[in-house]
Amino acid sequence: MGDLPETYVAGFHDVEAVRKMKYTMLGDTDIRVSKISFGTAVFSNLYSGSNEDQWKKTLCGALKSGVNYIDTAPWYGQGKSEETLGKLLEGVPRQAYYIATKVGRYEKDPKKMFDFSAKKVTEGFEESLRLLKLDYVDIIQIHDVEFAPNMDIILNETLPAVQAIVKSGKAKYLGITGYAVSTLADILAKSKVKIDTILSYSRFTVLDQSLNSYLPIFKSQNIGIINAAVNAMGLLSNYGPPDWHPATESLKKACAEAREYCKENNVELGKLAVYYSVNQKGPHTTLVGMNHISILKSNLDVLYNGLTDNEKQVFDYLQNNIFGKLENICNWEGVELAWYREELKK
């Protein structure tokens, strides 16, 4: 039973649930973050379904259970996630959560998708605050840095613009996000602006452990490490991935095989994926999208109780017969970037 975190609010939280939650300092920030955190890309049209009543129950249930970190972005539904989140957080004490949003990635049109200019960073962030109905966020992150025309823009324009926002008091800390972990490490090595956190997604999962190789670099600089999308954006779930998923057909086929095996044995593949990732050493928090109370309950159950005997048997089978044999098809690095570059030429 742990000490109560700084986000605890008497009368709002379930005190015993909060004491049960595991917390750790996020790098050298003053944020003590819950072991599992709340991703809100699911509060948008990136994923199917829209039920704000259910989202409200899930978000408030998570917060009252001790989950204290929320992640969003303008890209998620072109502002839909932030706008929805602003409504769902009405009545929730501001002290009860830490929140991060992003700058740099915005619209579906490839010509307008990314803008890392200082002007857009400033304007876009103000729009985020408006939609979220907040005076400040705890972390402002540069979204998917590998898509910048070149790294000089990130280093010499975007980072200083974000640093100015932090200095203004409208954000407390600065982070970068991306799928290419090598790019995150490269920016950290070259940046003259202090970077506090990195968010890496789909790179420390049962499919792909790329982030693990970079943990010593990030740890040596006391960077807060957020491991996101541990369900590999739907690949590792019984629902399956959305149509836009950039994985190769070979990887999708392997995950479909795993999905069917799970269904045959009455096991949720997503629960196995979360189990794997929350038990990896290194990241300070595991960021999971949750759009239904049943998913929240499953995530808390696997955090506190692990897997049942049947789930362990299925997990071992998948590891030995499917995931352990993927070799060079376990990721989709470069796929989206190549598509984006081609679209810009049209």
Automatic annotation (TrEMBL):
<dbReference type="InterPro" id="IPR044479">
    <property type="entry name" value="LGALDH-like"/>
</dbReference>
<dbReference type="GO" id="GO:0010349">
    <property type="term" value="F:L-galactose dehydrogenase activity"/>
</dbReference>
<protein>
    <recommendedName>
        <fullName>NADP-dependent oxidoreductase domain-containing protein</fullName>
    </recommendedName>
</protein>
<dbReference type="InterPro" id="IPR036812">
    <property type="entry name" value="NAD(P)_OxRdtase_dom_sf"/>
</dbReference>
<dbReference type="GO" id="GO:0005829">
    <property type="term" value="C:cytosol"/>
</dbReference>
<dbReference type="InterPro" id="IPR023210">
    <property type="entry name" value="NADP_OxRdtase_dom"/>
</dbReference>
<dbReference type="InterPro" id="IPR020471">
    <property type="entry name" value="AKR"/>
</dbReference>
<feature type="domain" description="NADP-dependent oxidoreductase">
    <location>
        <begin position="35"/>
        <end position="311"/>
    </location>
</feature>
<dbReference type="Pfam" id="PF00248">
    <property type="entry name" value="Aldo_ket_red"/>
</dbReference>
